[in-house]
Every structure is written in structure tokens, then in C-alpha cells.
Amino acid sequence: MKKLVLSLSVALFIALSSCGSKEYTCTCTLTDATPTSPLPTTTTKTVITGKKKDATTTCETGSYLNGYYKNECVLN
Predict the structure, then answer these.
(1) What confidence tens digit (pLDDT) does each residue in 2-34 have?
(2) What is d(CA 4, CA 73) in angstroms, rounded to the nearest whole number?
(3) Whole-model pTM?
(4) CA atoms of 46 and 23, how far apart (whole Å)
């Protein structure tokens, strides 16, 4: 009985600790395809704390295409 309670306690602890917030890195790359004098490609990294689904949604909202400018964001 003690082994069962101990095993369930350990399993519950592991399950609860994996549900918490984690830090994810969102990497965004801005590319300029202007035919005359394009800007250099820049990369920015932002740390997002939360659940993976929420972090992915937040990161992907930074992606856009506007004329010659393309900003692509990916969660690492």
C-alpha cells in the first residue's frame, strides 16, 4: 500500500510539473527584397514564457509580408 501511494505521488508530481509555464525562444528574421539598396537581413530573438501552444500563437503573429519586406517568426 505504501509503495502504491508513493508511486502515485511521484507520478502526480511529474504530471503537474510538466504542465507549468516554460520559456520558449521566438526567432524572427526580417528580409528586405527591395531591388535597389535593400536593407541587411536582421534576426531578433524574444523569450516567451507560457505554454507551448500559447507561445507558438504569440510568436507566429509576428510573421508578415508587406511588399518587399518579409518578417518570418519561428518558435525554437
Answers:
(1) 554 445 455 545 545 556 689 999 999 999 999
(2) 46
(3) 0.70
(4) 10
